[in-house]
Amino acid sequence: MKNLEIAGVFEHLADVIEIKGGEPFRVNAYRRAARVLGDLPEDVADIATEGRLTDIKGIGKGTARKIEEYLETGDVSAYRKEMRDVPEGLLELLGVPGLGPKTIGLLWKELDVRSIKTLRRELRRGSIPSLPGMGEKKAANIAAGVQAYLSRSGRSTLGSILPPATALLEGVRALDAVLEADLAGSVRRGRSTIGDIDILASSRRPGDVVSRFTKLADVEEVLASGGTKASVRIAGSVQVDLRVVEPSSYGAALLYFTGSKDHNVHLRGLAQSRGARLNEYGLTKRDRTLASRTEEAVYHKLGLDFIPPELREDRGEVEAAAESRLPELIEESDIRGDLHLHTNWSDGLSSVEDMARAAKARGYAYLAITDHSRSLGVANGLSVERLAEQREEIESVRRRVRGIRILAGTEVDILSDGTIDFPDEELEKLDIVVASIHTGFTQSEDRITGRIVSACENPNVDIIAHPTGGLLESREPYAVDLERVMEAAAETGTALEINSHPDRLDLSDVNARRAVATGVALAINTDSHHTDQLGSMGLGVVTARRGWVGPENVLNTLTTARLMKRLGRS
DNA sequence: GCCGTTTTCGGCCCGACTGTTTTCAGTCG
Predict the structure, then answer these.
(1) For position A294, what pLDDT does the model report?
(2) What positions of strand B are covered by protein, i.e. any atom < 7 Å from a CB?
């Protein structure tokens, strides 16, 4: 699937036009096209073949032609033409905080800056302050930006950012001038990776709140601080933005500060078409405020149903809200059990009994013990004999821990040659079988896809775990044709997992949405290796919500009886 | 370059903060 590749070309095209000082609306159009392509749940090549490219909002005739050109030749001549006189390294400079297209264009033309390297040269020479519109402070700012860029650690995972974000939110809520405060931005939308933490607060004395915020113990560096907002850096070099508004505009501000940017732009366009204006202070029409206190009121006055934060990505949610056809999203309370858990029989740290008691304490009706299979030596995978012994232990724990159904299962390896690590007669003895890939990551797309498809076709396999094998910010997924996998899963009734482990969140939001659209059932599991990790279920649920997933799409929302029936065991 | 329950041409989201300026441009979200 070339969607992301082509999106990258348009992103670069937008960058280069921007640096050259081209028409901003053209830049925007290419950026939008890039984003839309990146979010597309279908293979763009298929859409092109069917001549439906211009049906996609944001893709017009010009962009469609360029997409077709790329699919045919692997190149876009317009992009090549724009890049002819532009040094490649110049585009990278857009990643430097505080450095935008205008400044980059200026540095390029006046000082022949063409990369991070030549920029640092000019910073050392001290030639930047003498340029028009520049000064000592700007030069120092750029130098700091270059440092931050070179030492950047990429985005943080949602799971790693939630604890410090929540702690900081509590710190803000504890300030006496603060009336209300909430997390906003991509944290509130539940994106799997986070660039920075956004916090909104309401107060009648915004200036006080801002100045006290910048003095909180967690704050390591103040990047900017004004009368209503501040940016700081906390430990781990995570940036935190605080915005403070009057209580009367809290809803409009929360909406604005939650984003996404594209969602906001869409809403503002909608407001405009109704002769109104939307900003962080409210929805207004001819100086009259129509709504501002709550998000619900703003959506309502725009003629929309309330849109949950997880859906606010401009992926069709505004149109759906206008026609009252937003899906009813799954909630964590819908989850009745966890179907992928490890114990100290393989590479987990907790016992079967501890896991059962912890799951029961969470109010679950069932849990599945699914330790690794024999070939996964590094994880102390179970032999056929030990698997049988484990079933005996599970039987004895069932007698001690009542009120929760303990399923005996396995996370069986789909081996490199495509076979399943346990013979069918062993799998048949189990209540549930989770299958997954842990080896042969570098195989061709065709082979890996074939391995997973054949696992789906095994009638004993109930769930495919972490279907793409990716780790957020650290390991690319293996090459897999998810379209073929989803078709096989739909046909065979095999569920695909949304793995809630903080480093995985696999399937992703977009892929979960594709799965639902293809008629595939999902399972949201934690893959816990310790009782402490059962709580990451919330991350998987948020990811599912971002994928427009409802409770009816998820296996482990079923009652115990229905689940057992569905698994073909009773 | 894209788009259309006001439009096939004329629009295209909006405001805070900073630093360079004597009223604004650039950047960011």
Answers:
(1) 94
(2) 1-4, 6-7, 11-21, 25-29
- What mean pLDDT do residues A305-321 have? 93
- Amino acid, single-letter form, for residue A54: T
CA A458, A464, A465: angle at the middle one, nearest 5? Answer: 150
Asked whether residue A327 is domain-assigned, the answer is: no
Counted domains in chain A = 4
Q: Which nucleotide is nearest to A265 (CA to C1')?
A: B13
User: What is the number of helices (H) and of strands (E) in chain A?
Assistant: 24, 17
A476: in domain: yes
Confidence (pLDDT) at A217? 84
Tens digit of each residue's pLDDT (9 = 90 or more) over A421-454? 999 999 999 999 999 999 999 899 999 999 999 9
Q: What is the DSSP string of A1-31?
A: --HHHHHHHHHHHHHHHHHTT--HHHHHHHH
Q: Mean of the per-residue pLDDT values for chain A?
A: 93
The boundaries of the domain holding residue A198 are 156-245
User: Which two structure tokens, joined as six digits, stand for A198?
Assistant: 């956004």
Range A135-162 average pLDDT: 87
Question: Which band of pLDDT confidence, cut at 50, 70 and 90, is reported for residue A570?
Answer: low
Looking at the fold, whether A369 and A257 belong to one and the same domain comes out as no
Residue A375 Cβ < 7 Å to strand B? no
In this structure, are A100 and A118 located in the same domain? yes
Shared-domain flag, residues A284 and A428: no
- A504 and A368 together in one domain: yes
Percent of the residues in chain A that have a pLDDT greater than 90, as a whole number: 74
Distance in angstroms: CA A105, C1' B20: 18
User: Residues 397-436 of A near strand B (Cβ < 7 Å)?
Assistant: none
Question: Is the domain of A14 the same as that of A94?
Answer: yes
Residue A210: which CATH number?
Answer: 3.30.460.10
d(C-alpha A441, C-alpha A505), whole Å? 18
**Is there a domain that residue A269 lies in?**
yes
Read off the pLDDT band of A300 (50, 70, 90): very high
Which positions 294-323 on chain A have a beta carbon less than 7 angstroms from any atom of strand B? none
Which of A322, A348, A381 is where one domain is finished? A322
Instruction: State the Cα–Cα distance between residues A195 and A135, nearest whole angstrom.
Output: 29
**A163, A259: one domain:** no
Among all strands, which nt has the closest C1' to A195 (CA)? B29
Residue A373 domain flag: yes
Instruction: Mark whether A431 and A543 lie in a shared domain.
Output: yes
Model pLDDT, residue A274: 85
Q: Check whether residue A534 and residue A413 sit in a common domain.
A: yes
Q: How far is the CA of A80 from the C1' of B8 (A)?
A: 31
Short-list A497, A527, A559, A523, CA closest to A369? A527
The 3-state DSSP class for residue A140 equals helix
Residues 140-169 of chain A in contact with strand B via CB under 7 angstroms:
141, 145
Q: Nearest residue to B6, CA vs C1'?
A: A273
pLDDT band at A238 (very low <50, low <70, confident <90, very high): confident
Write down which residue in A322, A341, A372 finishes a domain. Answer: A322
Can you name the residues that pair with A491 across neighbouring β-strands?
A: none
By C-alpha to C1' distance, B28 is nearest to: A98
